[in-house]
Amino acid sequence: MQSVPDDWTDTERELWEAFRQGNVFDRRFGDADTDDPFGDAVWGPERTVRAEVLAHLLLAGPEAVPGRVASLRMNGLLVTGPLNLAGGRIAHYVELYSCRFDHKLLVSEAEASTLRLVDCLIPRLEASRLTTTGDLHLARSRVPEGIRLTDAKIGTDLLLNLAKVGGDRYGRAISADGITIHQDFEAERIEVDGELSIRTARIGGRLSLRGAQLRAAPQNRTCLNAVRVTVGHTVYLTSSADGGWFGSRSYYGSGYGETAPPDGPITPFRAYGRVRLSDSRFEGACLISGEFHLEEGDELSLRRIHTPELRFTCRKRPTGTVSLSRARVGDLVDTPTAWPRGRHLGLTGFVYEVLRPAEMFTVQERIAWLEGSSVEFQPESYEQLAAALRRDGADDDAREVLYAKQRRRRSTLSLPARVWGLVQDVTVGYGFRPGRAGLWLLLAWALGSLWFNAHPLEPLKADERPHWNPVLYTLNELLPIVDLNQGAWNPGGIDQWLSAGLVVVGWLLASTFVTGATRMLQRG
């Protein structure tokens, strides 16, 4: 049977026995200030163990007491020296609560079951290519010099709720590019000073950043880098209900407390710097309702994302650019006040199937949303919006969008084409205002009748004197397919030109009016 090394302290010997028993080794005093791992209280030898002792227990520890399961479970201890478990196989359950480390923790390329370091102070965590069969918990912990989880493989959940993470000298706080998480990645109400990078990550469940506070470093303007990420369920860049956290008794900081009232206080998701979700795929939904404090040149990039539902309902307009270029979504759930103004919206090639506004979103507001795009006139954006409105049965709104498309297109044409376009707009509304054509017909009928009443025409045959009716004659000229038996008159001079003009105007206006009326009857 393996015995305790001779050079171990009394505290470390007690930890040895607690490890064999699988018991919690708790050295907290019960005083909040003294037990605070982030406070200034000095922890003496009775609360101190060396990092090499933990490495010995985890990598070459003693056998468990018969009938017990050996595990490292510590509360309220100071770990001195660098704890280097890199490349090792950690077969035992590890749970550290309210502990302090005075050096960084190295577990790169290690294999473990479950690692829980809750409410701990860790200068830096190096865990690239770490593989766990269970969870990795860092809830409520503070890691002032950053976390490295590049290409790690987490068997179940990664929890960083309520953690506080600082950045390295390059402005990177959490480097987890290429990480694979089989279930959920929770970082709710986390505070990050630096870049949170999870590029090309694979997350089987949800990615939750509810109530997160992300601040970019001065040397690196990106605060969230989630490019080419695949999420098996839903991503949350949303608010967190305060009551649901502060009423929680969860040991691991998961935040499941009492149900918060719907109108209670909340902590919004806040991003101070660039946010990149480009080329990512969210199999459930992408929910965005946070605050985005973007400086000049910063962008919330949703370029080329794929998701069945995009919910964009920010209470405050983003101060920078939001780009949805080439994105493809199913349902678009949004509000008029959520989108940025002043040409800070990119919609090039943005494809959505159904519009489901969370608040009243009129067609004029929707057209203004389109025309607030940061690019010049793009006809496909109007066609996309009109198609979505038609699928929802809003044919009148769809025609309003297409009418706005023609008016916007006119501004891109040459001067002669703009003049002709203006004539079409004023007279028939590019074919989308048939009632306007009817009014012009009535006006032409009235003016023609007045003219010909004052200037009667001579009969075609001198020996015949048919009854002269200027009202019927004008109507006969205006209606191209109707014969009102007014062909016995012989206009000449200016009257001939006026008659020909009435025929041309009648063809143009009557055909437009009839087309619009037919469309209305078909809808009925």
Mean pLDDT: 87
The strand order across the widest sheet is 1-3-7-11-14-18-22-26-30-36-39-41-43
Low-pLDDT windows of residues: 520-524
Largest sheet: 13 strands, parallel
Number of helices: 11
* Distance between the ends: 91 Å
Using the alpha-carbon principal axes, give the shape.
Answer: rod-shaped
Topology readout:
Blueprint: H1 10-21, E1 25-26, H2 32-35, E2 48-50, H3 51-60, E3 71-75, E4 78-80, E5 83-84, E6 89-90, E7 93-97, E8 100-101, E9 105-106, E10 111-112, E11 115-118, E12 125-126, E13 131-132, E14 136-137, E15 142-143, E16 147-148, E17 153-154, E18 158-159, E19 164-165, E20 172-175, E21 180-181, E22 185-186, E23 191-193, E24 195-197, E25 202-203, E26 207-208, E27 213-215, E28 222-225, E29 230-231, E30 234-237, E31 240-241, H4 242-246, E32 266-267, E33 270-272, E34 274-276, E35 281-282, E36 285-288, E37 291-293, E38 299-301, E39 306-312, E40 321-323, E41 328-334, E42 345-346, E43 351-355, H5 363-371, H6 379-391, H7 395-410, H8 415-428, H9 434-454, E44 458-459, H10 470-478, E45 489-490, H11 494-523
Parallel strand pairs: 1-3, 2-4, 3-7, 4-8, 5-9, 6-10, 7-11, 9-12, 10-13, 11-14, 12-16, 13-17, 14-18, 15-19, 16-20, 17-21, 18-22, 19-23, 20-24, 21-25, 22-26, 23-27, 24-28, 25-29, 26-30, 27-33, 28-34, 29-35, 30-36, 33-37, 34-38, 36-39, 38-40, 39-41, 40-42, 41-43
Antiparallel strand pairs: 31-32, 44-45
